[in-house]
Amino acid sequence: MQNMRPLLCLALFVISGACVAPAGPWDAFNLSPASKTVYPTSIYQTTGTVSHAHALVDNVGSATVSGNGSWFTLDFGKEIGGLVSFNLDSVSATTSLALSFTESPMFIRSYASDDSSYPAANTTFDTVFHIPAPLSPGYWVQPAFSLRGGFRYLSIVLTDPNGAPVTISNVSAAISFAPHIENLRAYAGYFYAKDPTFHDHDFLTKGGSFAFQTNTVPLNTGRMVPFESAGHWANNATLGVAGPIIVDGAKRDRHVQPKVSL
Ligand SMILES: *[C@@H]1O[C@H](CO)[C@@H](O)[C@H](O)[C@H]1NC(C)=O
Ligand SMILES: *[C@@H]1O[C@H](CO)[C@@H](O)[C@H](O)[C@H]1NC(C)=O
Ligand SMILES: *[C@@H]1O[C@H](CO)[C@@H](O)[C@H](O)[C@H]1NC(C)=O
Ligand SMILES: *[C@@H]1O[C@H](CO)[C@@H](O)[C@H](O)[C@H]1NC(C)=O
């Protein structure tokens, strides 16, 4: 039976084009998320009055933020891309929110994301995504044009002249990249080896890696050109005639990639 396995695998490969390896040390090199709905894995920071922020980790409860200018930063644990959604459980008529997105912790700021529209020297070209007052209680989904294709940290910033509280729960992101791949962790066609005399491991994939997935995007999620003006970004341009399509970069260079160099 043991000897049948490679043959069975080959037969499956011919039929489905994919053959998944059994669990092993090579899984440590597989950075792809297990689900297309991802939740924060930790709280990076809180500023001002933020209570129960940790309840947002893995979606176990709700957090309350109050006081004008209070904010907090959620860490998704790895690079992700897609539309954010959450539930506003209680709001006040005067409150507005702002969202800022970054790949690196170096650029976490309440007033700006890292640049995706245009790489300006001041690093504050994009600024934030505003959700204006009055907020509606209930489920909120980020509009499609404002998609961020690459981020790890999401900051949520409260503005309220009266400092009124907002209670928020169910913060997640819907992975938008590699829409044609159902199980992002099922890499096909890779090679793994352990160096017998050194603490080194080699892991090579044939077009199945996480970087490749994050750069393979739905057809209508390209960066708008000419770029949006300062203070905005838009990722709703149509990239070609058929998709998904490979682009230069998940976050900023969402243009068709004429060569593959990942
Ligand atoms: C940052 O630089 C860009 C490009 O030069 C400019 O359009 C924008 O207004 C600047 N932002 C701020 C906040 O100064
Ligand atoms: C992209 O979204 C912006 C902002 O909503 C909108 O003005 C524009 O028409 C959209 N473009 C396309 C190609 O859908
Ligand atoms: C609230 O905070 C914002 C910046 O986050 C500031 O521009 C505004 O003046 C503040 N409003 C009040 C009433 O303090
Ligand atoms: C929580 O968010 C998910 C998307 O991640 C959504 O499908 C679900 O309806 C939300 N839950 C509630 C109670 O609105």
From TrEMBL:
Positions in coiled-coil regions: none
Keywords: Glycosidase, Hydrolase, Signal
UniProt signal peptide: 1-23
Domain of life: Eukaryota
A Gene Ontology molecular function term of the record: hydrolase activity, acting on glycosyl bonds
UniProt entry tagged with the keyword Signal: yes
Keyword Disulfide bond carried by entry: no
Protein name as annotated: Six-hairpin glycosidase
Organism: Mycena chlorophos (Agaric fungus)
